[in-house]
Amino acid sequence: MGRRPSGALPVMRRHKLTNTARIVIDGKVYSLGRWGTDEARMRFDTFIAA
Predict the structure, then answer these.
(1) Residue 7 covered by a domain
(2) Rounded to whole angstroms, how far apart are CA atoms 38 and 26?
(3) Range of the domain at 42
(4) Which is deepest, 3, 21, 25, 48, by most CB within 10 Å?
(5) Low-confidence residues of the chain, pLDDT below 70?
(6) 10 near 48, Cβ under 8 Å?
(7) Domain count of the chain?
(8) Is residue 4, in this structure, part of any structural domain at all?
């Protein structure tokens, strides 16, 4: 499995133990809230827009 292209957008991922949505930006992990909720999707969209 190779690296992602440098211009690729971050991906929202699920942390199974805590059932939370997470995103990694510049090597830092940000928790977005419970997986599958509207709140997590809104926070993800905010990170992508910024």
Answers:
(1) no
(2) 24
(3) 13-49
(4) 21
(5) 1
(6) yes
(7) 1
(8) no
Residues 6 or more apart from 34 whose CB is under 8 A from it? 19, 20, 21, 40
Residue 1 domain-assigned (yes or no): no
> What are 2's two structure tokens?
């190779």
pLDDT at 1: 64
- Say what the pLDDT of residue 45 is: 94
In a domain, residue 17? The reply is yes
What single-letter amino acid sits at 43? R
* Count helices and strands in the chain by DSSP H and E runs: 1, 3
At 27 the pLDDT is 87
DSSP conformation class of 40:
H
37's tokens: 């909720």
